[in-house]
Task: inverse folding
């Protein structure tokens, strides 16, 4: 790597590839060569993909490379189901695992996927990791599970082995933390609704609603004018069934 850096110093040209970008970043960080370090970071950002995201995430976490870390987290969230069933999961630290499963953007259809990932991580090194379980559990959204799933988790050997775990789970469920929303994979990305103001259905508004954020955009629409929509206003209120009834949607 020092040879690569010397070459850059004399020629002004930096050759970066996936097989040497991380050690080159380390050397540049040690020698405080900001341009080399930033170039390596940018190179890794554009090369984050399913096969590299976990490794690069751990690297970014170790060197506090925030931009790279954010891109890796986004990729891990998108492919969480595959990451959760891979060997890469076992290499994560407890803090890294906790950060990942705390994200709303996890693309999972059921919260049981998150629970099963935690179980696999703990069981991979049970003696060293079981004591971390109570600190991980609050980041699992138990209120999104069915009663049968909850009963099965409370009877799971990991939970029964650690007396504090079942108490943590019950406390999390009873708390009913409304801040913890459904994961990205559990929600519809956008819902479209119409509000008609006459019996002939010619005068209406369209409502674009984002279920994950609880926000909507109201848009006037005339079906007789093709291709023209006028966005009126963005509201920041919770979109509830009561609101829908009041608006006669």
Result:
């Amino acid at each position: 790597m020092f040879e690569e850096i010397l070459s850059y110093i004399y020629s002004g040209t930096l050759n970066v590839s996936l097989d040497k970008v991380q050690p080159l970043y380390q050397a540049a960080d040690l020698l405080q060569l900001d341009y080399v370090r930033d170039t390596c970071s940018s190179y890794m950002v554009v090369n984050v993909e399913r096969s590299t995201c976990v490794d690069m995430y751990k690297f970014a976490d170790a060197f506090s490379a925030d931009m790279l870390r954010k891109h890796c987290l986004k990729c891990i969230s998108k492919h969480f189901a595959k990451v959760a069933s891979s060997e890469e999961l076992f290499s994560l630290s407890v803090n890294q695992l906790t950060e990942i499963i705390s994200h709303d953007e996890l693309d999972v259809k059921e919260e049981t996927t998150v629970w099963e990932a935690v179980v696999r991580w703990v069981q991979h090194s049970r003696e060293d990791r079981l004591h971390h379980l109570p600190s991980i559990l609050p980041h699992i959204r138990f209120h999104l599970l069915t009663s049968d799933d909850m009963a099965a988790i409370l009877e799971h050997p990991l939970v029964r082995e650690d007396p504090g775990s079942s108490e943590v789970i019950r406390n999390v469920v009873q708390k009913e933390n409304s801040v913890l929303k459904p994961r990205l994979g559990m929600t519809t990305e956008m819902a479209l609704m119409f509000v008609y103001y006459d019996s002939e259905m010619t005068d209406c508004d369209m409502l674009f609603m984002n279920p994950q954020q609880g926000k909507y955009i109201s848009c006037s629409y005339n079906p007789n004018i093709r291709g023209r929509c006028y966005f009126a206003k963005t509201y920041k209120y919770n979109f509830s069934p009561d609101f829908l009834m009041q608006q006669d949607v």
